[in-house]
Design goal:
Distance between the termini: 28 Å
Mean pLDDT: 84
Radius of gyration: 26 Å
Largest sheet: 8 strands, antiparallel
Strand content: 15-25%
Order of helices and strands: HHHHEEEEEEEEHHHHHH
């Protein structure tokens, strides 16, 4: 690595560290302002609050790294252009690709770090943060636990289980209810393909059967029937394990299990594809940031680059969120929904570069 490459690489690393750290601290501050009252209301100790926010750091970094990386690229390239350093480099026989190669290597490094955080640190850290949040912001609330590729919850009169929790429609798939007596002996088993909470608090179960256990066991099948259980669906909604708490392998196994049982898995398939595509946005979005920086005005200073970076980053975030939402709703295939934003960013960058030549 020659002097120029080391210089560009060093400048990018400094800018990337500053931008990502700044965004992480900003989001932590916003979250702290929103939640500190509820944490203190339920007597959370200083160590619990500190551990909660330390546990959220890996996830915040994974979330904001594409925008922070793009802003770093804009700042580095714009500063070199305004100082006429790019002109001097061109005069020395260096091409734009050679000049920007160390920056792309730095983006690839951030992408790898984001992927490692997503797989090795975020799942356990997010679970720990949710446990603290559940204990201190919703004390006494019962939440389902994910185990053996199913959700389980101990209710007032029995044990409830579900294969799939849909928070948008507030429904469960693969529903099971085991009613037990005071001696914890099973007296009834209710099974249904789908369960929905009705406005009056009752459960509507579809395509299931009710089995009463004991000396005279009976089985009654039904297409749709309303049941009244002491438990509500809130425990499942609060206890749903988000993709951020699963590794790629765990989420892949869960998707495979949903497919095998015949349940709709597009929401989780989209999240599975995003586990790979999202960290790689650190590289793909840089291909949009470089031509943006080259086409920007030479005047305006560093704040113009920061403002431009925030604006472009917001637009990119909207595009990404919209694409993932379309994938989860089934409008786009999961693979296309997860990778389409990256393709659009690279294509837009290529178009800007051609226009600027």
């Amino acid at each position: 690595m020659n002097v120029l490459s080391r210089y560009m690489f060093r400048e990018f690393l400094k800018a990337a560290a500053a931008c990502n750290l700044g965004f992480v601290l900003l989001f932590l501050l916003v979250d702290f302002v929103n939640n500190v009252d509820r944490l203190l209301k339920h007597d959370a100790s200083g160590s619990e609050i500190a551990w909660y926010y330390l546990s959220t750091l890996p996830n915040w970094f994974v979330m904001i790294s594409p925008v922070g990386t793009m802003l770093a690229v804009l700042v580095v390239v714009s500063a070199r252009m305004r100082g006429n350093e790019l002109t001097a480099m061109y005069s020395g026989g260096y091409s734009l690709a050679r000049i920007c190669a160390p920056v792309m290597v730095g983006c690839l490094l951030v992408s790898g770090l984001s992927l490692l955080c997503s797989e090795l640190l975020s799942p356990a850290a997010n679970r720990h943060a949710r446990e603290i949040k559940q204990a201190r912001m919703k004390p006494g609330a019962v939440a389902a636990q994910f185990s053996g590729k199913r959700y389980w919850m101990r209710g007032e009169g029995g044990i409830l289980s579900a294969t799939l929790v849909d928070t948008q429609s507030k429904s469960l798939s693969g529903f099971l209810y085991f009613e037990v007596d005071r001696d914890f002996r099973p007296v009834r088993r209710v099974e249904a393909r789908r369960a929905v909470i009705l406005p009056d608090g009752s459960w509507e179960l579809q395509d299931g059967e009710e089995r009463r256990l004991g000396n005279a066991s009976t089985v009654e099948r039904f297409r749709s029937r309303a049941f009244r259980f002491p438990e509500t669906i809130a425990g499942f909604l609060d206890g749903e394990t988000p993709p951020e708490e699963m590794t790629f392998a765990e989420l892949s196994d869960y998707v495979r299990e949903l497919r095998k049982r015949g349940y709709e898995a597009r929401r989780h398939e989209t999240d599975l594809q995003a586990k790979i595509s999202y960290p790689l946005l650190n590289v793909l979005i840089a291909m949009l940031a470089i031509p943006f920086a080259l086409r920007g005005p030479r005047s305006g200073g560093i704040w113009r680059s920061i403002g431009l970076g925030l604006l472009v980053g917001f637009v990119c975030w909207v595009v990404l969120s919209a694409s993932l939402s379309l994938g989860k709703k089934g409008v786009l295939p999961p693979l296309l929904a997860a990778w389409l934003p990256g393709v659009l960013f690279v294509g837009s960058g290529a178009a800007l570069f051609r226009l600027g030549r």
